[in-house]
Specification:
Length: about 375
């Protein structure tokens, strides 16, 4: 009897232990099942990130101008390379209706299109709405539309200010030339910054301003003609803005007879770096525009689903605007340029913004 009782106890203990083990395994299974969805959630978030396999850029002129078009295309190539995407370049597209080209790029598999001209500001958003392919435009902030359109502006006046500080220190005639290829917002802002920068060094400096035409971006002959006029007016340093027309400006500087009091005439370029083709040694500097960082940020925003929630800006602080240091600039003068750069970044220097020709004229007239 005692043995049967003890045996029964042993069986009961065994059953209880067995049931407890099953319960523990069941609880462990539930914990594992609860952990799995968290892992799946992370994977789902990664899967939800938009893939960009191909980007495209359409530019009005050929991408060999050492200026707006070339810098834009090079920035797009760098952005595509940064994520391993394919790139399609449609340069030389002109300034007329670009809608067919934009549609072709979107239909051709582009996941992102760069409309590299402010003249495309109307067509690009319309095509983005039709095709649902995101685009970037220029100088029209109200274009910005979540998921579809983001606009790029430039603090060109900051780069112009640095060029003005340089010119103010380097001029021998106390007269500076400003040549604009077109009635362009960026040119007016950049020229206004140039005026302010030069006056920060020499308050009584004089300016000779000339414009090729309403849209003479590629007019090299016009660039040469108006540059000759500002040099004839006493300018020994010419600040030229114009894409293809700058080649004519440089030719004028290369062949000019220096004004009275000057040893030679210098040229300050914009957007690109023409040092490699400066055979006569007249390129004093250039306000460099770097689009790559902005395009990379746009790609990141597309991937994260935040594209079109804000616009972008090229400025001195983020490296979108800088001044080219050449061998012609003395070290002490370059130190003054660097000091001005730091002043812009820390806010101690406020550069005026002249977005229109009228505002620029008013600033020059004092």
């Amino acid at each position: 009897m005692e043995k049967r009782f003890l045996a029964g106890v042993r069986v009961s203990v065994f059953l209880v232990a067995f049931l407890l083990a099953l319960f523990a395994v069941g609880c462990g299974g539930e914990d594992e099942e609860e952990a799995t969805p968290a892992g799946n959630g992370a994977e789902t978030a990664a899967e939800d990130q938009v893939e960009i396999d191909k980007i495209a850029i359409v530019a009005p002129e050929k991408a060999n101008d050492y200026g707006w078009n070339q810098q834009g295309v090079e920035g797009a190539r760098a952005a595509a390379e940064s994520i391993g995407a394919e790139i399609e370049v449609a340069d030389g597209a002109g300034y007329e209706d670009v809608s067919p080209i934009l549609r072709q790029l979107a239909d051709g598999g582009a996941d992102f299109v760069i409309a590299q001209a402010s003249g495309y500001n109307t067509a690009a958003p319309e095509v983005a709405q039709e095709t649902e392919v995101p685009v970037v435009t220029y100088d029209k902030p109200d274009n910005t539309t979540p998921g579809l359109v983001a606009d790029i502006s430039t603090s060109a006046y900051q780069g112009g200010y640095l060029a003005g500080v340089l010119a103010g220190h380097m001029t021998q005639t106390n007269t500076l030339g400003i040549v604009e290829s077109a009635d362009d917002t960026n040119w007016h802002k950049q020229a206004g910054g140039f005026v302010a920068g030069a006056r920060s060094v020499k308050p009584d400096v004089r300016f000779r301003l000339a414009q090729i035409g309403q849209a003479g971006y590629a007019d090299a002959a016009g660039g040469r003609r108006v540059t000759n006029s500002v040099i004839a007016g006493g300018a020994d340093i010419v600040f030229g803005m114009g894409d293809g027309s700058t080649f004519g400006m440089i030719q004028a500087v290369e062949t000019a007879e220096p004004p009275a009091g000057a040893d030679q005439v210098w040229f300050i370029d914009v957007i690109g770096d023409k040092t490699s083709i400066d055979e006569q040694g007249v390129l004093l500097s250039s306000v460099l525009w770097d689009f790559s960082g902005t395009f990379m940020q746009a790609l990141e925003d597309i991937q994260n689903g935040t594209f079109g929630e804000k616009g972008y800006d090229l400025n001195v602080e983020n490296g979108g605007m800088s001044l080219l240091q050449t061998e012609h600039i003395p070290d002490d003068v370059w130190a003054e340029v660097e000091a001005a750069k730091e002043g812009i970044i820390d806010g101690s220097i406020e550069v005026p913004i002249t977005a229109t020709k009228g505002e620029l004229d008013a600033l020059i007239q004092g």
